[in-house]
Write a structure and sequence with these properties.
single chain; alpha/beta; Rossmann fold; 6-stranded mixed beta sheet; globular
């Protein structure tokens, strides 16, 4: 594997089709009170909840490259299917509205579908067409069927998220760019590079960070905390995440071989299941709110934060480490989980 420079990575990113959506670079906040409370590593939070569009989140950053590619191919309608409180769907609906693309969202009829609140409410405000899918049906198949129907009608659709490896790889590319931001921000702070970066990630967010660290020859360890496990259709095994790392590098014009052993993606903090609050996630969310005045949602970023806290408390991280936690957003979902949140306060 050839080590590349930050300038070379930046140049490769600049050559890709891209639409400008996000407020970048996002801030990076040091957390002195949380650091002191945990008696562990120095902790920073990369505020990708501040990307701007539709209450922000990591998917806004990713959609710059995913939709940049789609627009370059003449796509006129985008399709996404996920949980009814999907952050991806909310951010996609806003991005599509800005770019003049039709957007079809296919939410699963899960426990939160009938209560139109949070992400689901916001997605509707952006004009997305809502086509619900039965709770036990395959979202991947439903999206493929929708795309086939639209093609017969003369449209040029693009499936995003699960079921589109090209979109997942471009999502990873966006987090190559995020890694460069973090690296430059640490240099500006006159801090040594992070020893660890934690991200709540099903795959692409972690894959981009991993690819960047390896291409640059950095020793920073990337740790993914997965909000779902193999019970969910969208779950990506570590081997698939390694493949996304390699695919992101190829898109940028670089060769990268990622042994599956390099992928640290934990499902230990999922709890009862995807989209369901966990006691550890609730405790982590409350601790961050009450030490730093920063909110995370209870079912995505909150679970990622619980993984970081668990690793600190187990001694996996020490006071010598410098840790960045990627805040991937998801704040509108808080309002859909009010009862569960209040039960833990």
């Amino acid at each position: 594997m050839t080590i590349v420079s930050k300038a070379e990575l930046s140049s490769a990113l600049a050559a890709l089709p891209r639409v400008r959506l996000a407020h970048l670079p996002t801030p990076i906040d040091y957390c002195p009170t949380l650091t002191k409370r945990l008696e562990g590593p120095k902790i920073w939070i990369k505020r990708d909840d501040c990307t701007g569009v539709a209450f922000g989140g990591n998917k806004v950053r990713q959609h710059e490259f995913i939709l940049g590619d789609a627009v370059s191919r003449g796509v006129d309608v985008v399709i996404q299917g996920a949980a009814s409180q999907s952050n991806q769907s909310r951010q996609l609906a806003a991005a599509a509205a800005r770019l003049g693309l039709d957007c079809i969202l296919m939410p699963r009829k899960d426990a939160h579908y009938d209560h139109v609140q949070g992400n689901q409410l916001i997605a509707r405000l952006f004009g997305a067409k809502i086509v619900p899918v039965d709770a036990t049906a395959s979202l991947k198949q439903a999206k493929e069927d929708m795309a086939a129907r639209l093609k017969r009608e003369g449209r040029n659709p693009a499936i995003l998220g699960m079921g589109s490896q090209s979109a997942l790889s471009l999502a990873a590319v966006a987090y190559v760019n995020a890694y460069l931001e973090i690296s430059s921000q640490f240099e500006a702070l006159d801090e040594a590079q992070p020893t660890h970066i934690y991200a709540t990630s099903q795959g692409s967010t972690q894959a981009g960070l991993q690819a960047a660290a390896m291409l640059l020859g950095h020793s920073t360890q990337i740790r993914g905390i997965n909000p779902m496990d193999s019970r969910n259709e969208a779950y990506e095994f570590p081997s698939a995440i390694a493949g996304q790392c390699e695919a992101a590098a190829r898109i940028l014009g670089f060769d990268l071989s990622v042994p599956v052993e390099e992928i640290s993606n934990s499902t230990d903090w999922v709890g009862a299941g995807y989209g369901l609050p966990s006691a550890d996630g609730q405790e982590a969310s409350a601790l961050l709110a009450r030490t730093e005045g920063i909110l995370v949602d209870p079912v995505y970023s909150g679970k990622g934060l619980s993984g970081l806290l668990g690793d600190i408390r187990s001694g996996l991280l020490t006071a010598k480490d410098r840790v960045v936690f990627i805040h991937t957003g998801g704040l509108p979902a808080i309002f859909s989980y009010a009862d569960a949140i209040l039960a833990c306060t």
